[in-house]
Amino acid sequence: MKTTVALPAPYRRLQRQLGRIDYLSQGSVFKRQPGQQGSRYVWTRKVKGKTVTVALSQSQYKWLHRAVANQRRLEELVSQMQILSRQVLFQTIPGVARRKPLRKNVLGII
Q1: pLDDT at residue 103, as a whole number
Q2: Which backbone phi and psi does 50 adopt, to 5 degrees?
Q3: Cα torsion for 9, 11, 15, 18, to the nearest 10°?
Q4: Where are the domains of the chain?
Q5: Is 51 helix (H, G, I), strand (E, B) or coil?
Q6: Does 69 have pLDDT greater than 70?
Q7: Cβ neighbours, 10 Å, residue 63
Q8: Smallest Cα–Cα separation from 57: which of 41, 44, 45, 69?
Q9: Mean of pLDDT over the chain
């Protein structure tokens, strides 16, 4: 569905940032301290509600560390885009008559 409302500049900036995101991965990566039991580099994630742990090489750790950070950045950008989308929707497209204006927390824009 194409909208007739022009995309605001902040939204276009978010779109450009999305295009610069590299590889993605869910989960967490961490480096154990010397002397701790187990592999030095570890990746964990949830699979069907259970935590799965994978031992990594140092190179894999560095790569996944960046991919996990990219995933978190992606989620933050999408969240900001959703908020801006709702702002545009409720500010520019006619809706139903209401006795009271909708609060920001109801619209999910705070």
Answers
A1: 81
A2: -115, 145
A3: 130
A4: 21-91+98-107
A5: strand
A6: yes
A7: 16
A8: 41
A9: 91
